[in-house]
Amino acid sequence: MSEESLVDRALELGLTKELLAVLEGNSKYSDLDSIDSLDRHSRRLRAMAMIHLKFMLEFGSLESERKQVEVSGKVYSSYPEYFSAWKLAGIPGILPHRLDAMIKEAELLKQPY
Fold first, then answer.
1. How confident is the model at residue 110, as a pLDDT?
2. Distance between CA atoms of 71 and 63, rounded to whole angstroms?
3. Tens-place pLDDT, residues 37-69
4. pLDDT tens-digit profile of 68-81?
5. Could you give the CA distance from residue 83 to residue 48 in angstroms, rounded to a whole number?
6. 4 alpha-carbon distance from chain centroid
7. Residue-by-residue DSSP string for the chain
8. What pLDDT band is residue 19 in, cutting at 50, 70 and 90?
9. CA distance 85 to 47
10. 33-47 b/e with 16+ CB inside 10 Å = b?
């Protein structure tokens, strides 16, 4: 499965919060060495992907063209273009085999007994 497909599957399974935790280095699926070794371009893509995931968690996945939400005079933005670029760049900050393991564990937990 491609990196892009892995991320899409994780989102389908409702793993947005866990995906963000992996990128932040706060998950058992995180690899801090991988995060620390990113070049500046990959760091930027990772940071923008994190902002996008935070937006999704706070305001939901907006299917419309609206990419900004104003709350109490503060504007929050989503960054779907950067999120797509992050996926196309090979999901810098996440090791694909760890993301695959996270997905497999989530799929097992969702199976009926």
1. 84
2. 19
3. 999 999 999 999 999 999 999 888 655 456 788
4. 888 888 888 888 89
5. 7
6. 10
7. --HHHHHHHHHHTT-HHHHHHHHHT-STT--HHHHHT--HHHHHHHHHHHHHHHHHHHH----SS--EEEETTEEEE--HHHHHHHHHTT-TTS-HHHHHHHHHHHHHHHS--
8. very high
9. 12
10. eebeeeeeebeebbb
User: What residues are paired with 71 via a beta bridge?
Assistant: 74
Query: Domain residue spans in the chain?
Result: 3-110
The phi-psi region of residue 77 (left if phi > 0; otherwise alpha if psi is between -120 and 50; otherwise beta) is beta
Which two structure tokens, joined as six digits, stand for 30? 């995180």
Q: Which residue has the tokens 């419309």?
A: 64
Q: Is the pTM of the predicted complex or chain greater than 0.85?
A: yes
Q: CA 55, CA 79: separation in Å to the nearest integer?
A: 9
- Structure-block tokens of residue 87: 């996926």
Bridge partners (DSSP) listed for residue 70: 75
Q: Report d(CA 105, CA 93) in Å as an integer.
A: 20
